[in-house]
Design brief:
Layout lengths: L2 E4 L10 E4 L8 E2 L13 E7 L7 H14 E12 L1 H10 L15 H10 L10 H10 L4 E5 L21 E7 L1
Parallel strand pairs: 1-2, 1-4, 2-3, 4-5
Antiparallel strand pairs: 5-7, 6-7
């Protein structure tokens, strides 16, 4: 079974094909996905990406999703964790300062914390809500899209949730090739 961890950040996870735009410990494929992944068509059973898609400019996101779809086997699954705009707005409306990961020295006001967390210090270029990510995945020609919860899967791969983190601020979705 081959599983891809795309946008893995500074370190890879054991037992995964780890890919990121930068090099680092345990990163098997340091490359820019927009130039293509060095994998054959249909090579991967499933792929997971935790908060990497928001760093890709909007006009290139469908292409990135198509590249992830290309490397999946027929019936393969892509699991995405993305920053959830609605959760952030709801926390702001509740006045829930504890929701935000932004320290007071970076931004003290509640509105400032909301804005800075949503763009995550300038790394995130896109905000996500469930309908938006579903539309992107459909444009990338995925056959089915399932909105799922933290550590919950609609797939036949229970271990696909192993990389889940950032529960409080994320939405989770799975798309089937």
């Amino acid at each position: 079974m081959l599983r891809l961890n795309w946008g893995c950040g500074g370190e890879g996870e054991p037992g995964w094909i780890n890919s990121d735009v930068k090099e680092g410990p345990g990163i098997d494929m340091p490359c820019d996905i927009r130039d293509g992944l060095p994998l054959e068509d249909g090579a991967v059973d499933y792929a997971v990406s935790i908060h990497a898609l928001p760093e890709v400019p909007y006009d290139q996101q469908v292409g990135v999703l198509r590249e992830l779809r290309r490397v999946l086997k027929p019936g393969g699954v892509l699991r995405l964790a993305l920053p959830d705009l609605l959760k952030g707005v709801d926390a702001y409306r509740r006045g829930d300062r504890d929701y935000f990961e932004v320290p007071d020295e970076d931004m003290a006001s509640l509105g400032g914390k909301l804005a800075l967390q949503l763009v995550w210090y300038g790394y995130s270029r896109t905000l996500f809500v469930p309908e938006f990510v579903e539309e992107l995945l459909r444009r990338a020609e995925f056959a089915a899209v399932h909105h799922v919860g933290f550590r919950e899967t609609a797939s036949r791969y229970p271990e696909i949730v192993a990389l889940d983190n950032r529960e409080r601020e994320s939405l989770f979705v799975e798309a089937v090739k």
